[in-house]
Request: fold
Amino acid sequence: MTVLLQQIFNGLMLGSTYAIVALGLTLVYGILHVPNFAHGHLYMLGAYLCFTLMTVCALPFWPAVILSALALAVIGIVIERLAFRPLNGGAEINSLLAAIGVMMILENGVIALWSPEGQRIPNPYPGMIDFQGIILSQQRLLVIVSALVLIVLLQMFIKKTLLGSTIEAVAQDREGAALVGINVNRVSALTFGIAAALASVAACLVSPIFIISPDMGSALGMKAFVIVILGGLGSIPGAIAGGLLLGMIEALGGGYLSAAYKDVYAFGAMVVILAVKPMGLFGREVSER
Amino acid sequence: MLTALLTAVFKRTFLRTVTDDRRKIQEKEEWMLKIRENLSAVIFAVCVFCCLHVLPAQAKEIVVGFTGPLSGPISEYGQDISNGIDMAVRELNDKGGITVKGEKYSFRLIKLDDRMNMTTAVTNVQQMREQKAVAMFCGSAPAAFAMMNVNQEKGKEFLVLLYSSTKITWDNKLTISISGPLECHAHEYTDWAIDHGYRKLGIILNPDVYGKEWTDTVRKLWEKKGGVVTAVKPVNYYREVDFSSQITAVLSTNPDILLIGGPSGTTALMIEQIRNMGFKGGFMIVDQVRLENLKKMLKGTQLIGNAVIGAPMTCNTMPPMITHVKKYKDWYHRDPNWESILNYMAMHALAKAIKAAGTAENIYAIRDASAKAYPTTADKYPIEVWGISEYGRHLIAPTFVTLKNGTEEPAYGVYWWLKDKKEFDAMQKASRYPLKFKMVPLVKQ
Reply:
C-alpha cells in the first residue's frame, strides 16, 4: 500500500509541474488560437535564468524564482510582439512556423550563452519527511503546494478581476472584445507574459531536483501540447486535470509496468480519450470563425 | 551622286536620329544580357581552372574521422573522445607528420556531430568515406555497427576504432575495440559485492545494447555466485531526469545492493534520488560513469556510501600521465579522462601502425601492423596497453576503486587476458603502474 501511495505522491508532483506548464500553454492558445511550440523552451529559459541568478549572482532561491518569472514575463511580451502579433489574421500555419522559429532561437541561444552540458541548481530544501512509510522530499512537496497556490491565484485572477475577465473575453471572441473597447493587443501581450512567467516558476521549482539542459524544454513542450489537447484547447480546468492525469499515468505506468513504454502510456491515453471525446475532456464545441 | 554620298556620310557621322539611338541602346542591352547569361558559366570555368592548376600542390594527408554526440545532453562524452583524437593529431602534425616510404604525410581529423542519432551517424560515415578516411572513431556500439556494415567493401576499406566495452560478437577483420571488456568489470563487481555480504541485487540500467549486456552479464555471474536478482527496471538515463517511480518500484523488493549507471550527470541524479528514498545499501556503478564527475555533482563521495566503480585514470601517478594531464588542460581547458586518453593512445598507435606497415592505403596491412605500437609502459606513456587480443581488443587492464562509507580506498587493476600465475608474475615485472593488480582469466574478449 505504501508503494502505491509513494507512486501517487510521485505522480502528483509530476502532474503539478505539467499542470502549471499546460495552464500557460492553454491560456496562450485561447488568445492566439495557435499552439505555441516554443512554450517548453520558455520553461527551459526560466530554469537557466534561475540557475545563473543563484550561482553567478548568488541570490537566494525565492528572489531568484521571482526575478526569473518577471524576466520571462518581459521576454514573453517581447516574443508576442515580434513573432506572433504581426501574423495575426493570417494563415494559422504562419504562426506555427513562427513558434518553431522562436523555439530554435531559444534553444540555440541557450546553448551559445551557457554550454550544452547539464547544470545543477543547488537544492534549497534538501530535507526528507517520512510520513507513515512514504518518503516525501521537501522540494517535491513544495512543488505540489506551489502548484496548488498558483492555480488558485490564477483562477481568482481570471474570474474575479476585471483584467482577468478581459483575457477571457478576448479568448472567447476577439472581434467582440475589440468592439466593447478592450485593447486586444495589450491583453494578448499580458497573457503571453503570464504564461511565460508560469512556465518559469514551474521550471525553477522543479530544477533543483533534476538537471537542467538545453533540451529539457522540447520533451515537456510536447507533453504540454498533449495535455492541452487532452483537457480541451483553451480550457483551464482541462489543463489542470490533463496535467495531473498525465503525471499519474507516467508515475504508475513507469513504476508498475515498464519505464521503457512511459511515453506509450501517455500518448496512448491521449488517443483513447480523443477517440471518445474529440474535443478533449473539458473542451466545448467551438463554432468556426 | 557625290553630294548624295557626302550627305549620307555626313549624316552617318554627325547626326543621330531617334532610330539610331534606339538601335544602339538595344544592341547594348542584348550584349549585356549575353554577358549576364554566360557570366556564371565563365566564372565557373575560371574557378575550375584555378582549382586544377593554380592552387599550390598540397602535402599528402591521412584522414581520420569521428562521429559522436558533440552537442546535446551527452556532448561532454563526444567532446572528450574527439579531444583525445585531436590532441594526438595535433602532436603528430606539430612533429611534421609521419614519413611513409619516403613520402611525408600529415593528419586531418574530421569531427561530425550525430547527437547519438544512428541515422545521422550513418550519413556521417558516408561523408567520411567520401573523404577517404583511413580510420573512423566512434563512441557507441550502434554507430560502430553502422560502420562495420560498410568498412570491408573492396576499395573503400577503413578501420573502425570502437570505444565500447561490450563483448566482441562481430566477425569484422578491420575493427579494434579500444577499451577493456565489460565482463572484467562484471566479475570484479560481483566478487566485491559477494565478499561484502550483499545478496539481493536490484538493476536499474539503460534499455540499450550496453545496458542489456551489463544486465545479462551481471545477472549470470550474480546467480552463479549465490546471489538473487530482486528487480530489473530499465530507465532512460539519456532523456529522463525523474526516476522516482522506477526507484520506488525497485526499492519495494528490498534489495541490499543496486547496479546502476549511464551518463555521469544523470547517474549522480539517480544516486541522489535513491539515497533520498532511504536506501542504505551499496552500489555497483557501471564503467561508463566517471567518479570525478560524480564527485563534482554530488559535492563529494559521502552520498555514494559503499560502492565499487571504475577508477579515474589519474590513479596512475607516474610522470608521463601528469605531463599529459597538464598539457590536455592547457589545450582544452578541461580535465582529461578515460574517453580522451584511450582514443589519444589509439590515434598515436594508428600513426605507428601506418608507419610500420609502410602504407597509408592498404588498410589490411595497417591492421596487421597495429600491434607493433605496443606495449606501452607507464614510465614512458600515460597508460599501459600491452597489445591486441586475437579478437581485436586492446589489452588494457581496467582499474577500480571501492568506496567504504563514502571514503575512497586505493585503486587497483585487473588483468583479464593472462592464463596463469606465471604470466601474471611476468606482467607484474613489466608493468610500471604504481598500483596493485589482480587477475581474472576471461575467454573470447
